[in-house]
Amino acid sequence: MNSENFSLSEKIVSSSYIRQGSQARRGHEQLIRVLLEQGKCPEEGWSESTIELFLNELAVMDSNNFLGNCGVGEREGRVASSLVARRHYRLIHGIGRSGDIAAIQPKAAGSSLLNKLTNSVVLDIIRQAGVRSASSCFVVPMATGMSLTLCFLTLRHRRPGARYILWPRIDQKSCFKAMVTAGFEPVVIENVLEGDELRTDLEAVQRKIEELGKANILCVHSTTSCFAPRVPDRLEELAVICAKHDIPHVVNNAYGVQSSKCMHLIQQGARVGRIDAFVQSLDKNFMVPVGGAIIAGFDEDFIKEISKMYPGRASASPSLDVLITLLTLGASGYRKLLSERKEMYNHLAKELGTLAQQHGERLLHTPHNPISLAMSLSGLQAHSDQAVTQLGSMLFTRQVSGARVVPLGVEQTVSGHVFRGFMSHAEAYPCPYLNAASAIAITRGDVELCTKRLDKCLKSLRKAASPGASGATAPPSGLEEDQGDAA
Questions:
Q1: What phi and psi, each to the nearest 5 degrees, are found at residue 473?
Q2: 166 — phi, psi (to 5°)?
Q3: Rounded distance, CA 280 to CA 124, Å?
Q4: Residues 344-399 pLDDT 10s
């Protein structure tokens, strides 16, 4: 409805009613106008009716929705199922062109505008979350591991003679495979134990640079968000080392946007040294379906170079999902979730600490990890060799998802590399343990139900292992699914 149509409507319905409806529509349009002007996440979230109005307006700008369109090409936005079309708001053409994921599509102005606005809104949120000097980012329809691969492949053109990637060890398969898939040899830097924490061995990094030669090293591949007792890498120190030796630095920030500490590490690293790109998951940070990531950095030209490395057009679904989500929440709603997550971290630490004490265990002291916590299982291990792995299976079958039970002595081969002590980020961590994380949108109910069920499982296992429990049936063994998944 435009002003002319509203005027015509006054001949059919009372003009006072039409003017009221026109004013209501202008309220929606004003929100859209501010978004287009500023390219930032609105402070307050939009209603679903405003979001749907906006998306429908974008969709009618794409050629597949033109009333008189005659398509005779191989890609004309034809969709057989109306259910599929509605699922995508009839934004069918995707994003980018064959040579550049960020390019404008001549026959899809609406989808192109969606792509540009999403990247702009996401960049605003990244800055608000703590990386204020980030200059550019783009949403890519791949999860974190493949997005890291894209970064490494881009660096190959800048450093064609490089063979190695220096990688402080973190026991997650996809970030390791990302390096191998890109055709490079990961050089695993074992962590050092400081108290309960596993931290970056900076001296080992320096030694490897001297041993291999900086020209042969593609980059340093560091990590922020991770499972305790591993803690975020010493990003500032690594960034200084990279700047000193002119070696690129790529950061796996998989679920770090939700942590002000992780984002501060990236900001500080870029300030005092070198960080070329940092990659984060959409689903872990923004509560959308799996399948997207954000590649961000401080050099706009390099981020554009990465986007041009993506071959072909791409699905618009991840961009659409995150834009809808951020428009729904608004910047204030997202900040509120981040604040609540911090509160839940303290609550989870308190509850796990109390439970650990009751069972003769302890909450490992990992103050440098702002998301994940770890509780020792030494006493449980002493009761039975199988009890630790049985605990993981029991929790999963009791619908406690996300908890990771890490036994001692696991050996795993990933892309030809043998990891001893796999899942513990070290060859010989002193004790088995259980992980739990305070991730975005976790609730007090999640924490209380988890600790309640964990308490029951521990009691059941100890009872089954006690001398007077002959004939007791031990719970099934096994580990929870996805324990080696990264990113």
A1: -90, 120
A2: -80, 130
A3: 15
A4: 999 999 999 999 999 999 999 999 999 999 999 999 998 777 899 999 999 999 99
pTM of the model: 0.94
Q: How far is CA 149 from CA 155, 188, 250, 400, in A?
A: 10, 17, 11, 32
* Residue 474 confidence (pLDDT): 46
User: What rounded mean pLDDT belongs to the chain?
Assistant: 93
Asked if 378 contacts 390 with a C-beta cutoff of 8 angstroms, the reply is no
Cα separation, 291 vs 283, in Å, equals 7
Decide if 257 contacts 129 (C-beta within 8 A): yes
Beta bridge partners of 372: 437
